[in-house]
Automatic annotation (TrEMBL):
Pathway: Amino-acid biosynthesis; L-methionine biosynthesis via de novo pathway; L-homoserine from L-aspartate: step 3/3; Amino-acid biosynthesis; L-threonine biosynthesis; L-threonine from L-aspartate: step 3/5
Binding site for L-homoserine: 216
Family designation: Belongs to the homoserine dehydrogenase family.
Binding site for NADPH: 131
Reaction(s) this enzyme catalyzes, per UniProt: L-homoserine + NADP(+) = L-aspartate 4-semialdehyde + NADPH + H(+); L-homoserine + NAD(+) = L-aspartate 4-semialdehyde + NADH + H(+)
Cofactors that this protein relies on: a metal cation
MF annotations from Gene Ontology: homoserine dehydrogenase activity; metal ion binding; NADP binding
Keyword Transferase on entry: no
Enzyme class: oxidoreductase
Protein name: Homoserine dehydrogenase
Organism of provenance: Nocardioides mesophilus
Protein function: Catalyzes the conversion of L-aspartate-beta-semialdehyde (L-Asa) to L-homoserine (L-Hse), the third step in the biosynthesis of threonine and methionine from aspartate.
Domain ACT: 379-452
Active site (record annotation): 231 (proton donor)
Amino acid sequence: MAHDEPRKRSDRRSDDDGRTRTVTRPLRLALLGCGSVGSQVVRLLHEQADDLTARVGAPIELVGVAVRRPELHRDLGGYQVPAELLTTDAAALVARGDLDLVVEVIGGIEPARALILSALENGASVVTANKALLAEDGSTLFAAAEKAGRDLYFEASVAGAIPILRPLRESLAGDRVRRVMGIVNGTTNFILDKMDSSGTGFAEALEEAQELGYAEADPTADVEGYDAAAKAAILASLAFHTRVTASDVYREGIAEVSASDVASAREMGAVVKLLAICELGEGRDGPAVAARVHPAMIPRTHPLASVREAYNAVFVESEAAGQLMFYGPGAGGAPTASAVLGDVVTVARNRLADVRGAGESAYAALDVLPMGQTVTRYHVAIDVDDRTGVLAAVAQTFAEHGVSIRTVRQEGHGDDAQLVVVSHRATDEALSATVAALRTKDFVRDISSVMRVEGEES
Ligand SMILES: NC(=O)c1ccc[n+]([C@@H]2O[C@H](COP(=O)([O-])OP(=O)(O)OC[C@H]3O[C@@H](n4cnc5c(N)ncnc54)[C@H](O)[C@@H]3O)[C@@H](O)[C@H]2O)c1
Ligand SMILES: N[C@@H](CCO)C(=O)O
Ligand code: NA
């Protein structure tokens, strides 16, 4: 059904006493996918129907649920999904033409992308939790929403229940964001927290995360930083009004983080976290965006250091507001469904009022800095010969690459001698060249730990 002419959403009627009242028809919602998140969306829509009606101004009617195996979805926590609502034909459901809202919680690129595009073309607004799709091809979705005059909301796609995209899109729309630094993957935070609190190695901590159901059987997306990189792309796009895709984000996972890295961090009053960092840097032609995901040491006094277990948090620094911290559960069916429902209410209100919320904001169109040009600091633990002049030679190597040293300390003596150097800020290119040069020196026996340091200015 063409949606060029808005369907009539309410009628003005006169009561017997002559007062007019508004009769509003229900808003029709279709759900795509009924797994961890989708099943909780159905539950909340059902259990909170009266409150949602009051908040939106019209009832939200669930008119279809696309699933792969209907026999698995009849009973959702005691609520019987009417059999006639379940369908295995998601494409037909989104194309039926009378939908107001479509919630996509299937995940992945296809068929999610085709279904979202069809939903928008057929006149529905869309709410999605799909970080992978938004980070790969958000601009296609935004353009389709713009063309259709409909909304595209996705709060659940980054840090689950934590309100962070709405603050960036709306609350901070009058400010100038400088940096967004977050722990946006619960699985890896659980593993690193375990390594920190118990001294175990990566493999053992991963096994425990898998036993407790935090990590998937194939943990690649979390452990190698792909999940966090997708979220970083979404955060950077919103914070800096620039299109940033997952492939623009520099990415290193946590598989190489060793028990001795964690112990070394502890020695200097720091903790290792997998950080997603989106910030403004200096490009050749002015300000540019830098977006990266990698393990880093942060001081234990930093707000992000207190984020334990599988929790998420996002630390935002902006010009006028200063420092803001958003903290909470970054995953799980019900917490993620909370974020989805929040978007559903907003989008439903907009449909009733025949207005749109904020669309894509990419007007700044900043360049994205390569990792080599990004400014950071390094912590380097160097196993060295314990003799006169070695410390001076190490310092000389840093100086030759234009990298200034902030602190240096010696651990152990003789065969166990180690120099632990923390640099001042320099480009990643200069810092990695320094480490490469150190590796060639005859007095260097091994470089046992190299890690970036974040959370302090100098
Ligand atoms: N689970 C979380 O904690 C969490 C947190 C934030 C965001 N998300 C995002 O939410 C989305 C859903 O995640 P989930 O954890 O609920 O996944 P899930 O695997 O539990 O559920 C997805 C469901 O979609 C179904 N499905 C697959 N293809 C389909 C198709 N063609 N038609 C109909 N149904 C189909 C699957 O059978 C499955 O039941 C993903 O984009 C994910 O990244 C999840
Ligand atoms: N796998 C993610 C949750 C979904 O984004 C995590 O571990 O945080
Ligand atoms: Na969120």
